[in-house]
Each structure stands twice: as structure tokens, then as C-alpha cells.
Amino acid sequence: MSAELTVLLSSKQIQDRVDELGREISRDYPEGPLYLIGILKGSFVFLADLARAITTPCRVEFMGISSYGRDKKSSGEVKVTKDLDVSIEGRHVLVVEDIIDSGITLTYLLNVLEQRKPKSLGIVAMLDKPERRQRPVQPRYVGYQIPDEFVIGYGLDYAEDYRNLKDVCVLHESA
Ligand code: IMP
Ligand code: MG
Question: Is residue 118 within 8 Å of 136, Cβ to Cβ?
Fold first, then answer.
């Protein structure tokens, strides 16, 4: 099997948009600390760039959620594989996601986090595929809405490969 990649969003387009998001978030959350919760592993690149584009004092935490395995589609089953090490009670929290697809992962996660009584709870997603939504998730901030294509790079993987690509690319597979 061979794979063909075409660039959907260049690293320059991504950086420009991340800087805009950082400015918007800094304006909307003037008071820190803002808790940025990165969802492993896909958000690690976006989170690193976004955190540096935000001027409000931030704290960075991670959670691990699994729902996909090696497949390109959600298994529909979600579980927490790594929980937070800190309390978020009374804190402003932004969940940082690489991409929203069916919305199954974030619906589950928001339920879990809401029970911990944060002062506010929002989502920032670098990419959004609204056409594929099965659960109504409303991110507060989105980098780019993209069509229904499987994408990799800028933290996103296919079977753990391609996370280190600077651009977001569409992965076309041929037999
Ligand atoms: P959801 O639960 O279907 O919204 O899935 C969200 C998760 O699926 C993301 O955090 C990604 O890890 C993964 N995912 C969804 N679409 C893609 C894609 O196009 N490329 C790589 N990973 C994806
Ligand atoms: Mg993910």
C-alpha cells in the first residue's frame, strides 16, 4: 500500500491562524491562570504553538482519551487513558483538541470535566469537520473548518505516523 499526500493547510497558514486565535483567547480571558488541557496525543503541536500565542498566564495539563485505535473512524467507544493530575474546580478551562470529527470524544470528555466544577469550560480545536458530526459539540474557537477528508500532520496521525509534518495534508491511499 502506498500513500499520497497533498497539502491542505501550509505551516504559514496554520501559524497565522494560531496567532489570531491566541490574540482572541488572550482578549476573552484577561485573567489567569487559564488551564489549557491538551488531549493526547494529537494536540501536542497545536498546544505548543497556541500556548505561546496567548499572553494570559496559562497552565498546561494533558489528558489521554482513546476512541480510535488504528482505524480512520471512531470506534464509538471512549475511555480516559490518562487523567488530569490537578483539580480544575473554580478554574477557567480550555480543552485543546487537534480536530473534531464525530464529536463523540469531546461530548464524553466535556461530561467528565463539567462534573469537576470548572468556572468556565470551552473548546479550542485547530480543525473541525462539521459535516461528520454525530453529537452536537460547539467549539468556542476553531482554526479551520475542513471538508470530510482524512488529514495528517501538525500533530495528527494515521496509525501513529506523520505527526511531525509541518503542514496539514490529506492522506490518499492507493492499493
Ligand atoms: P471524534 O470523537 O470523532 O470527534 O474524533 C476526534 C479524534 O479523532 C481527534 O482528536 C483525532 O485524534 C481523531 N481524528 C478525527 N479525524 C481525524 C483525521 O482526519 N486525521 C487524524 N485523526 C483524526
Ligand atoms: Mg485527538
Answer: no
Give the atom of ligand 1 at the shortest distance from the alpha carbon of 42.
12
Comparing C-alpha atoms, which of 18, 34, 31, 24 is closest to residue 140? 24
CA of 172 to the centre of ligand 2 (A): 20
Which residue's CA is minimally distant from atom 15 of ligand 1?
101
User: In sequence order, what DSSP letters do the residues of 99-158 get, joined into one string?
Assistant: EESSSHHHHHHHHHHHTT--SEEEEEEEEE-GGG-SS----SEEEEE--S--EEBTTB-B
As a whole number of angstroms, the distance between CA 109 and CA 111 comes to 5
Proportion of the chain above pLDDT 90, given as a percent: 85
C-alpha cell at 172: 490518499
Q: What is the pLDDT of residues 146-167, one digit of tens each?
A: 999 999 999 999 999 999 999 9
pTM tops 0.70, yes or no: yes
